[in-house]
Specification:
- This protein is α+β, with helices and mostly antiparallel strands.
- It has helices at 2-20, 23-26, 31-44, 67-78, 84-105, 108-116, 118-122, 133-145, 149-162, 169-180, 186-199, 201-209, 213-220, 240-247, 252-272, 281-295, 315-323, 348-352, 357-360, and strands at residues 54-57, 60-63, 302-306, 339-344, 366-373, 376-382.
- Helix 3 (31-44) packs across helix 4 (67-78).
- The longest helix is centred in the N-terminal third of the chain and has 22 residues, at 84-105.
- The mean pLDDT is 93.
- Keywords: Membrane, Transmembrane, Transmembrane helix.
- It comes from Candidatus Gottesmanbacteria bacterium RIFCSPHIGHO2_01_FULL_47_48.
- The chain crosses the membrane at residues 86-104, 109-128, 148-176, 188-206, 231-247, 254-271.
Length: 384
Amino acid sequence: MRTKVIALVFMLLISLFLRTYRLNELAKFNYDEARDAIIERQILQGNLTLLGPETKVGGTTIYFGPLPFYLMAGALKISNFDPLGPYYWTAILGALSVLLVYLLSKSLIATAFIAVFPIAVIFSRWAWNPNTIPLFAAAFLFSVVKKRFFFTGLFLGLVFQLHFTSIALFFVMMAFIAKMGQIKNPKIWLNILVGFALGIAPMIAFDLRHDFLYFRNAASLLDADRSYRSLNWHYFLWALPILAYWLRTWPKRISAGIVGLSLIVTLYYLLTAQPVPQRHPQTIKQISTIIAQDQRNTSLNFNVSSFVDPDARATAYRYFLDVERVYPLGIGEYGVSDHLYVVTFERPEKVLYNQTYEISSFAPKRVSKTWHYKNINIYRLERN
C-alpha cells in the first residue's frame, strides 16, 4: 500500500511538472484567451454574466456556458491580472484529473497514462474553455461507476458548459445504466435530470430571458450545414478519462508501451517547442504600457490594431490597456478614432497604405511617432 501511495505521489508530481515545464517561456496570449480574460476581469468588477465563450460554426455564432469564466476569474485575481495565473491554474486542474482517474480506476497504469499522454498534457498548459474537460469528465465517470446519479447529471451539465461535444458522455452513461439493467428506472433518470439542470442552471436562466438562445445554438449544430466539419483534438478531451479507465484492462506490456511512447512524445514536444515572442503575454503587456503612457499625455481618443498575430483588432492589447485603465474605442470605431496605434513588423510606408479594414477605415496621413520593442514596431498614426 505504501509503495502504491509513493507511486501515485510521484505520478502527480510528474503530471504537474509536464504541465508547467517551460509554460512561461512558451505561453501565447491569443484572441480567445484575451477575450476570456477581459470578461473574467469584468466579473471580478461585479459585472456578472450568464453567457459563456463564443465560437463560430458554419458562419453561426455559438455560445458555451459561463463556467470557464468563473473557474478562471479567481486565478486571474490572485495573479494580479497576469494571464499566466489562469494558465497555471489550468495546469493544476489537469493534475487533479490525474488524481481522479486513480480514484476511479485504482490503476497506476491508467493514472500514468492520463499523467503523460500528449493531448492531456498540452491542453492543460493554457486557459481555454475546453481545456478543463478531462477533470469534469473524470468526475462524471467516477460518479457513474459509483452510481451517484445526481452527481452524474451535475457533472454532465458542467462538462456540457465547457463544450457541447462533451454531450457524447450521455451515451456512455446510457450504456452503463443499460448494463446495470436499470435503463427504465425512473428514480435514476430523475436524479440525473435534476443534477443536469443544476449543472446548466446559468444557461437555463439565460435562455428564459433571451428567447432560448442556448437551446437554439445547440439545435443548430444538428444542421449539416452548421455542424462541426473538421476534427480537432479538443473535441475528444471528454474521452481521455474513459480511455485511461479502459487501458487498465489491456495486457500490461501493451499498456506500458503506450504510456512509455506517450511520455517520449510529450517530452519531445516540451523540449523542441519554440516560443512565439510576439504573442507572449509579457511582450504584449510591455507594448500596451508604451501605448498607455503615450495616450495619457493627450486628451484625444484612440484605437489599436495588431499585425504581428492573426487578431488585427488587438484583443490581447485591449486587455492590458484595460488593466492600465486606458480605454481604446471599440472595434467598430476605427473610422472615428483620433489616433491609431499599430503593432507590426512592417516599415511605416507599408503601414500607411495597408488596405485592411482597421487601417483603411482610419485613413491615416502620417506616422507621428514610432517606438521599437525587440523586433516589433509600434506606430502612432494620425489623419493630418
